[in-house]
Amino acid sequence: MTGVATSSPPALVEIRDLVLEAATPRGTAHILRGVSLDIGRGRILGVVGESGSGKSSLASCLLKLLPSNMTRLTGSVRFDGTDLLPLPEGQMREWRGQRIAMIFQDPMTALNPLFTVATHLVDVLRRRHGDITRAQALERARAALVSVGIADADLRLQAYPHELSGGMRQRVMIAMALLVEPDLLLADEPTTALDATVEAQIVDLLDQLRRKLSGSIVFISHHLGLVAQLCDDVCVMYGGTVVETGPVDEVLAAPLHPYTRALLACEIEAHDEGGRLVSIPGEVQDPVAPHVACVFAPRCSHALDACRAGVPALRDLGGMRKVACIRAEEFA
Amino acid sequence: MTAATPVSDPVSMYRGPSALAPATPPLVSMRGVSVVFGGAVRALDDVSLEIVRGDIVGLVGESGSGKTTLCRVLVGLTQASGGTVDVDGTPVASQLTGDALAFRRKVQMLLQDAVASLSPRMTIGRALREPITIHDLPQGEALQRLDQILRRLGLPADVLQKFPHQISGGQARRVGVARALVMQPQLIVADEPTAGLDVSVQGELLNLLLDLQQEFGLTYLLVSHNLNVIRRVSQRTAVMYLGQIVEEAPTRQLFDKPAHPYAAALLSTNPAIDPQRRHRRIVLQGEIPSVVNPPSGCRFHTRCPVAQSRCSTDAPALAEIGPGRQVRCHFPYSLDPQR
Amino acid sequence: MRGLAATFATLRKVGGSLTGAVGLVIVALVLSCALFAPWLATHNPDALDVMNRFSPPSGAHWLGTDQLGRDLYSRMVHGASVAMLVALSSIAMALTLGLALGILAAYLPARSERIVLIVFDVIASFPSLVLALAVVAVFGPSTLIVVIVVAVTLVPHFGRVARSQVLTLKSAPFLEAEKILGASWPRIVFFHVMPNILGPLVILASMDIPVVITIEAGLSFLGLGVRPPLASWGSLIQDGYQYLSDSWVPVVVSSVALGVATLGFTLFGEALRDAVDPRIGREHG
């Protein structure tokens, strides 16, 4: 198995060479160009990337909620040994209700405006535990709301989504996800749409909950600071590929991939003094363009001809760190 | 600030790069401005703010803070229900009834959604010529200026034939800037100029805005939820909560030692990447109250970690607690660097 | 230039579906008949030839003749011009007036707006045919009356849609941006509001064409529409119906013409709507 030290337990999820393509009027879009990734057991993995990185599509693939114009999905997604990709939809539904849960960016569109909070939570419980009674479900729903910091839980149970604030709705979503008692929790930019002080509350909540949660979490975000604070490992994505992975503090303190280095240089840190702000020139490669070279090469200040000649493999550099760059050693 | 400026001189310490004598009137002077919608919603309450010519003033606040309303009052889209708003020495209201077009040339705005701020069925070229037509600017000179601006902003010539939905967010932003610059404004209100932009490209836009400030002698009011941007770019910052300014100070001082409990909490929400620099977050309890029914007394008292009984009955006024620093609080945090 | 290219692209889309293609062909046919009637017709539609009344279809008269010996084919072709004249002029009138009132209603203060809406409701509550009958009964039949009455009954329809379009648009950022630039209200309405609401209205208008054709035919059938010798399909049907025992050809020919034209415009209108924005007109049925 690539990159996993014999002393650490096998990963919960092993993604290998995941390719996702979709049909667009301008041609085939390569959304994921061969993604390989491990999600450790009981660990929080942060997936960072900018527009076009494919990070949200990766989450959708894990749940197999695929776009209608999808034309190709190859590779393997081994969840505790079982490859999810070939599973029929019926079986996949079981997985979604019982072993994988997701929190979305916009809780308003994820919650059904016609149903109360209680209905949402009871529905989740019923799917998870087929034989639970309504009374038992309501009790557990109530407890779940309390555990995510909602004070007057009884009142909120009867509320409709539009009667709740953004932060409250997000808490309900987290409660719903927790009730699934998932082995894997996916959070796609869960705080991006929230006000800063509310975001701090939710981040605080997630920080507390992660200790109680036995499963793994995948936290997708474009906010490096948040990822640094909350996550154990980080996976940096660019243009549909994984460019670097590793323990979060190490990767952010000593990045090895030119994109990660450039991205960090662009971040405006609090201690910055004057001088010009850094940006990465150029644009992300058109997803319709074929994948025959390093995706970042056109914008990389360290690109060589070799970089444009072939796709760099995600190489194991020891210490759980992997980088997809032929010149990675030079930056160590 | 030049090296020769003595640190103990409070006035020049916060005046920013274009250090002017205190006698020069500020470009913008808002005093006790309030905006009430429908007789009930106090979107702005007793807002006082000054913007010195050549400065960049940052405005931060969450939902319901009133920062959008403040911007709209400044550009003349919303009328103030009370208080005075002076731009370039004259009240906005009288400028709008007098030579309205002259006022429009003075104060421009960059809207948050850059693509949506462009008329969808008009080509970019036509959109850029709108200000020339509206203000009857001398064609030759204005078109030449437009051409220069486009080149300065790095917009390719073929963008003129495109429609708003065909250009990227970054390009749309630059088109918005070009459209504003054609009129040679004095003040630009920038509403979330980096929102929606990837981190890897926001630096370019900010550098551009800073360069333009020097080249065209612009003054900015910068609204952003990105505290790093505000801190890096603005000379002074005002923090708003539920329609009021709760603290206003030179940016560096504000970020180093916020005095208002809300400002302290808000500024602490931004986690740093470097674990060494990560400070303890202040996590507030409760939700942001609705603007329709704000709390009595100090509007922040329901979530304030240091609120006392006085705070629920007695609304604090904006008071000066240091040179160029104002706070609206009965019990502000100490400015003592030791604490 | 973009308008032309976009129009052709839309027409191609319309022709893409079977119903759209059929509609497109029929509309083209009817419009050609309407525009080129004098050249497409074989005879003068008013030329009497009583000796040859009710003659069956032949080489001389492709569809035969009516009770006065007039060539049915030519009368049918000219009937297309009458239908198109009434339909297009009344809809154009209604569209213009409805657009103006709708925009006004969207910008007026609440009380004045309510008055406009009440006027709309009052007009809309009259079935157009009944209103037409009433007006014609008072003023006597004439093409102009028909056009005006039909136009008036359609005004609320366009007016309401125009108003709701403007209301949706009012909070659009680009309108605010134009205000900040200093654009005057007339400028904003003409250059920024109208171009963005015209699209759905034009499509609604095209979907109303078959309705107006039918109304005009109905009035003419009752003798309350266009005056003879102008040949409307409706009056052709009336004539044919009167002399049904003498020949079934006139009734069938004119009914088929009316039916095909109405069907064609309906198919075209719906295909056009689907090609541009399937959401238009659903609420209006």
Ordered list of secondary-structure elements with their pairings:
The complex is a heterotrimer of chains A (332), B (339) and C (285).
Chain A: E1 13-24, E2 27-39, E3 44-48, H1 55-63, E4 70-79, E5 82-83, H2 89-98, E6 100-103, H3 107-110, H4 117-128, H5 134-147, H6 153-157, H7 166-179, E7 184-188, H8 196-212, E8 216-221, H9 224-230, E9 233-238, E10 241-247, H10 248-253, H11 258-266, H12 305-309, E11 315-316, E12 322-323, H13 328-331
Parallel strand pairs in A: 3-8, 3-9, 6-7, 7-8
Antiparallel strand pairs in A: 1-2, 1-4, 4-5, 9-10, 10-12, 11-12
Helix pairs in contact in A: 4-5, 4-7, 5-7, 7-8
Chain B: H1 10-13, E1 28-37, E2 41-51, E3 56-61, H2 67-74, E4 82-87, E5 90-91, H3 92-97, H4 100-106, E6 107-110, H5 124-134, H6 139-152, H7 169-181, E7 187-191, H8 199-216, E8 219-223, H9 227-233, E9 236-241, E10 244-250, H10 251-256, H11 261-267, E11 319-322, E12 325-327
Parallel strand pairs in B: 3-8, 3-9, 6-7, 7-8
Antiparallel strand pairs in B: 1-2, 1-4, 4-5, 9-10, 10-12, 11-12
Helix pairs in contact in B: 5-7
Chain C: H1 2-16, H2 18-40, H3 72-107, H4 110-124, H5 128-139, H6 143-170, H7 173-181, H8 185-221, H9 233-242, H10 249-276
What this model shows, in words?
The complex is a heterotrimer of chains A (332), B (339) and C (285). The longest helix of chain A is centred in the middle third of the chain and has 17 residues, at 196-212. In chain A, the strands form 2 sheets. In chain A, strands 6-7-8-3-9-10-12-11 form an 8-stranded mixed beta sheet, with helices on both faces. By secondary structure, chain A is of the alpha/beta class. Chain A is globular, with a radius of gyration of 21 Å. Chain A is built from 13 helices and 12 strands. The model of chain A is unreliable at 1-6 (pLDDT under 50). By secondary structure, chain B is of the alpha/beta class. By secondary structure, chain C is an all-alpha fold. Chain C has one domain (2-276): Orthogonal Bundle (MetI-like fold). Chain C contains 10 helices and no strands. Chain A binds chain B through residues 50-51, 165-168, 195-201, 203-204, 222, 224-226, 228-229, 249, 252-253, 262-264, 266-272, 276-281, 283, and chain B through 62-63, 168, 198-204, 206-207, 225, 227-229, 231-232, 255, 265-266, 268-275, 277-278, 281-284, 287-288.
